Amino acid sequence: MRCEMSPIEGASAVRDEDAFDVEAVRSWLAERGTALTGDIAVQQFGGGASNLTYSLRTAEADLILRRPPSGSKAKGAHDMGREYRIQDGLKDVFDLVPQMVAYCEDDTVIGSEFYVMQRVDGIIPRRDFPPEVVLSPEQTRQLCTNALDVLIDLHRVDIDATPLASMNKGNGYVERQISGWSTRFRNAHTADIGDYEEVMAWLEANRPADVANCMIHNDFRFDNLVLSAADPTRPIAVLDWEMATVGDPLMDLGGTLAYWVTDDDEEFFRLFRRQPTNLPGMMTRAEVVEYYCAATGHLVTPEQWRFYEVYGLFRLGVIAQQIYYRYFHKQTTNEAYAIFGPAASHLETRCLAIIRTGTA
């Protein structure tokens, strides 16, 4: 008998190119103590453009499977074992990580490594909230501060009290990021996109010293949060730990604000909006920086913040270019990835405007 289940916001049928052997996963999980009996309803989440995320549900189980995309991948990217171990390692000190189930490094099971975790049921605020979720300006403001408090709490984790202490490479994180993302861009460059050379040279010439070494999420956005269905201003889980590491907290905040698109931004940049940062009551980017710095004690002038703002936009541009590279070279047939080329070009223009005039 097929079980009836309520739909999951953001999930739909699995794309043909992203399908996998569900029965192989059932057998593999059973060998590790997680038995999925009866029909397995499989759906794919379409919000992300990096690792692939699927829902696996039966009458008794509600799971998530994560695996890498097909095609060429940047070195070190899409490491499922690392993403699994980070969340598992944080479970005793940061209670907003989902519960891990199992990790598979054997790529003969479905053609790639993958891991499985419990799904956290709640609201994920994607580009817009679902129609039934309506926040007042005061509630929207509360959502902002609650979300920022989660990031602040993560940055305060005692990393030495976790199994992840070895991830701390010490000072030099800012330098490593500028060098690393510059190399990634050059490796993913296509002839139809600008070269970012002026941006990369400016970041290298203006990079500050690390302000701290702490656990950072590196992709902290509203659409990587699960909010309580009873109180949509309250985060109950943080998702997508693919890029988490130990590093500089202001670099983490700069990456977060690259996605903070508001209605007074220029038209093309508004197309980048993947979270409801346009709602009445939403903090401005400057207010986010002010709130974070007041809570953490970091002192950053607007001129100093310019580096972190350009870095966040540059890094987003590199991510867009890496995704577009797969589309450009026909490693994916997903037409949704075509826009990432123009996106990378626009982000270069935005970076240059901030570098030259101080504002985008």
Question: How would you portray this structure in words?
Answer:
The protein is an alpha+beta fold. The chain folds into 2 domains: 11-118, Phosphorylase Kinase, domain 1 (2-Layer Sandwich); 137-357, Alpha-Beta Complex (Aminoglycoside 3'-phosphotransferase, Chain: A, domain 2), CATH 3.90.1200. It is built from 10 helices and 10 strands. The protein has a 6-stranded antiparallel beta sheet with strand order 1-2-3-4-6-5, covered by helices on one side. Strands 7-10 form a two-stranded antiparallel ribbon. Strand 2 (41-45) and strand 3 (52-57) form a beta hairpin. Helix 3 crosses helix 8 (285-296) and helix 9 runs antiparallel to helix 10 (340-357). The longest helix is centred in the C-terminal third of the chain and has 27 residues, at 302-328. The radius of gyration is 20 Å and the shape is globular. The relative contact order is 0.13.
Overall, the morphology is: globular
Output mean pLDDT: 93
Report, as a whole number of angstroms, the end-to-end distance: 57 Å
Determine the CATH topology of the largest domain.
Aminoglycoside 3'-phosphotransferase, Chain: A, domain 2
Q: Specify the CATH architecture of the largest domain.
A: Alpha-Beta Complex
Indicate the percent of residues in helices: 25-40%
Question: What is the topology, as strand order, of the major beta sheet?
Answer: 1-2-3-4-6-5
Strand content: 5-15%
Element pattern in H and E: EHEEEHEEHHHEEEEHHHHH
